[in-house]
Amino acid sequence: MKKIIADSTNMKLIGRVYMNDDTLWLGMSGSGVEFQFSGKGLTITLCADEVYEGERKDFARAAVYINGKREHDLLFDQQFKTVIVSPDGECVVRIIKLSECAMGSVGIKPILADDDDSITPTADKAHRIEFIGDSITCGYGVDDEDELHPFLTETEDVTKGYAFITAQALGYDYSMFSLSGYGIISGYSDDGTRHEDQLVPTFYESYGFSIGSFGGIRPMDIDWDFRRYVPDIIVINLGTNDDSYCTNDEGRQNFYSTKYTEFLHVVRKHNPDAHIICSLGIMGDNLFPALERAVDDFTKETGDRNITLLHFTPQNGELDGYAANYHPTAKTHAKAARALTDVITMIQNR
After folding, report:
1. Contact at 8 Å (CB) between 210 and 218?
2. For residue range 53-110, what is the model confidence (pLDDT) as tens digits?
3. CATH code assigned to 128-348
4. Whole-number Å distance between alpha carbons of 302 and 189
5. Which fold has domain 2-121?
6. Contact between residue 323 and residue 141 where contact means Cβ atoms under 8 Å apart
7. Is the per-residue pLDDT at 15 higher than 90?
8. H/E element holding 269?
9. What are phi and psi of 325, to 5 degrees?
10. Are strands 17-20 and 23-26 parallel, antiparallel or unpaired?
11. Strand pairing partners for 199?
């Protein structure tokens, strides 16, 4: 038997991942690995960070796919989960983090295989896309179509969200940076209080934010090397949580515009050639005019026209229902994915 480390020499790395000792940690929604396996069988051991020991019941969730089919859906209510892959031949294996970074991470331990078995990375796609968003991008509540139910990681599945669906429809490699409840100037507010500790721009230049850690190292304390993943397209979908704070207050809306423009400068600094799509509207479009001002200000300041606005059609609960906490259902996500796919196809065909 031999041990195979989950690194870029053996596997295709998906999204923002972090190697600590011999364990590859998956933090962000949708992060993972993919590889071609040839042989008799594999023993894959996945582990949870220390979050599983806490009082919370929002355990990290991950899935293992064999030849595109989800064979194992794992909720980490214990530290280790072991999966046996025994195709006795060739197959493509993909391991994907389904839940978001904030509620804990999943590690891939060295994989056990027979000495004659082989693991090789799958090929890169022709194009790359990055998504920057909030709970909508995470696929919050999509597995629970009862709007009165609260958040649970066991009902969160990024693969059923508009972002993942769009990447699959286009045949693009993807990376996600999404945090539920977070915004540009405020996290979600139910009483008008500004939550400035819950801002995507604060953490975008790191691996993310989590209540857990990668083997004792917090994701937000690790700088992200933007050379590791250079996207052709970046989709920003932020403003839903800000709107809960801004409501119809003109001063707050203008502050959102100003800070959004500042964030665009940061995104552009690290991604000089990417086409940026600034989108909003799936869970309400009250802040869309403020988003338009932000993009217009950025374009005037920089002359940068490699940027597009996308006004998503707001979800229709009577027609498509609601998921947990009034989040989008699979039907709503599918509609948003079609709209986004059309826009990106138009951009690529220019």
Report:
1. yes
2. 877 778 999 999 999 999 999 999 999 999 999 887 899 999 999 999 999 999 999 9
3. 3.40.50.1110
4. 33
5. Jelly Rolls (2.60.120)
6. yes
7. yes
8. helix 250-270
9. 60, 35
10. antiparallel
11. 183
